[in-house]
Specification:
With about 180 residues, the chain is an alpha/beta fold. The chain has helices at about 20-35, 55-65, 85-95, 115-120, 135-145, 150-165, 175-180; strands at about 5-10, 40-45, 65-70, 100-105, 130, 170.
Amino acid sequence: MSKVALVSHDVPTIHGRAGGVGTFVAQFAALLREHGDDVTIILTRQETEPTLVDDAWRKKYEALGIGLVEVHNAPPSAERWSDTWPARLSEQLAPHLREFDIAYFQDWANAAFCAARAKRFDPSRRPLLVTVLHGPSGWIRVANRKYPNIPEDLHVEFVERYSALHSDRVIAPSRYILDWAI
């Protein structure tokens, strides 16, 4: 039995809403749990104030034996440049990852950044990092025909690319996103 973390900004449900990534996370968590893995969903939010999972879903996760941890971002700091919010969030997340064998991340605002940096210097470090391609910020900007806000969007894109590039594995739920990424 592996200890698995599913790290996501989107989970069912927050204020009664969830998107495609959240649906993927909930279904994947249930499948892993069915197969005997010890699963924890780690909600990682950009906001510094608590944005919590709805009570009904907390109870569903508990009934399925799926753990839930909520990590909220630290406030921005005038002392840091660039103070890219996904990098700051990944610092908040890093201590939570130590107990896991494997951690899955979505590519949008990939919170694996600090863990991937640390792993480059100590390859034996746990957990195994897996980035799942759902659609990074560049994909979303192209689809919406938006230019990046400079420098913020470019810093976020750097964090996403770095995290995926230095993950132990990168997987894609569709050939379409994989072809776009390569």
